UniProtKB/TrEMBL annotation:
PANTHER family in alphabetical order: NAD(P)-BINDING DOMAIN-CONTAINING PROTEIN-RELATED, PROTEIN YEEZ
Source taxon at top rank: Bacteria
Residue stretches making up the NAD-dependent epimerase/dehydratase domain: 3-223
Single GO MF annotation: aldehyde dehydrogenase (NAD+) activity
Protein name: Nucleoside-diphosphate-sugar epimerase
Organism: Bacillus thuringiensis
Any one annotated GO CC term: cytoplasm
Coiled-coil residue spans: none
Gene3D superfamilies: NAD(P)-binding Rossmann-like Domain
């Protein structure tokens, strides 16, 4: 494939781009002036710079490719500026329209399991209809809806990937990074006993899934949304695995579900994170597996690769 990637300079994006290159695809990385591109200079890829307001330049960059990847959700969800997300949703619309004008066959959008509420205790599949409680969840719903609507209006095939909580190298700001910091400080937080179940995935497998989506024969309808996970575990088992791989057992701080604001700040958490720690977040990704994609990295592989 000949692909162009927008919003790929974050941690997950770097793994997606890396996997595309490893599979032999020709990759153009579209970057903005403020993006950190040091890692990408060592890759066999074409790096170009664009301005979001310059539609003609965007169309020129897109022209001649087989697939456009939009990965900008990752960086935006790690910021506290919700207006930036609104702006990115509108830019996604521009990207899809520009892709259609350039007659690109496929537009692939990286989404997030943040789209889901915390009401379902057992596993969630693509058919589950979320009832968002938090503004960030509502924005992810809005973002995906925009991808569907604009894709259909402009007759371009769209695919959406919702990965489980990702962990991997080059991560600087996610929940897992904060947990590692807590572990190094010998104050690893767990809500109650840490028995809440969660689906996780190695960032390399997210990259592999996005490569697979680039060649998968998708249809332009609401069913072209895929969940993907690497493995299921609990927050306590995650702590145990970190202990084992590092070779040092961190002290565990057992916290109640109803934390005070002072406690939330003390343990480097957020109200949303506390909720995520307290409710099961299991994914049923049978759809993508039945279509032929299989993840590669298990629990221990993933943690050892990071540490």
């Amino acid at each position: 494939m000949k692909v162009v990637v927008f919003g790929g300079t974050g941690f997950t994006g770097s793994h997606i781009i890396e996997q595309l290159i490893l599979e032999g695809h020709a990759v153009t990385i579209a970057t903005q002036e403020t993006d950190d591109i040091i890692f990408f200079r060592g890759l066999v890829a074409n790096i170009v710079q664009f301005n979001k307001k310059d539609t003609s330049l965007i169309q020129q960059i897109i022209k001649g490719h087989d697939v456009v990847y939009n990965l900008s959700i990752e960086d935006k969800l790690h910021t506290n500026f919700l207006e930036d997300i609104e702006e990115e949703i509108e830019f996604t619309k521009k990207l899809i329209i520009s892709s259609a004008v350039a007659r690109i066959p496929r537009f692939i959008h990286l989404s997030s399991i943040l789209i889901y509420d915390f009401q379902k205790e057992d596993s969630i599949d693509e058919s589950y209809v979320s009832k968002p409680e938090y503004q960030i969840q509502k924005l992810v719903v809005k973002w995906e809806k925009k991808v569907h609507e604009v894709g259909q209006q402009n007759e371009i095939k769209t695919c959406i990937l919702r990965p489980a909580i990702s962990i991997g190298t080059r991560d600087r700001s996610s929940l897992f990074t904060r947990l590692l910091e807590s572990h190094s400080n010998n104050l690893y937080p767990l809500i109650e006993c840490g028995n809440t179940k969660v689906s996780l995935i190695d960032a390399r497998d997210i990259g592999r899934a996005m490569v697979w989506l680039g060649t998968y024969e998708c249809n332009n309808n609401d069913n072209e949304v895929f969940l993907v996970k690497g493995f299921n575990t609990t927050w306590y088992q995650l702590k145990q695995m970190i202990d084992t791989v590092i070779g040092n057992e961190s002290q565990t701080i057992y916290l109640p579900k109803n934390l005070t604001n002072d406690q939330i700040r003390m343990y480097n958490l957020t109200p949303f994170t506390v909720k995520a720690f307290s409710a099961n977040r299991l994914i049923n990704d049978n759809k993508i597996r039945k279509k032929g994609f299989i993840t590669k990295y298990n629990f221990e592989d993933t943690i050892r690769n990071i540490l």
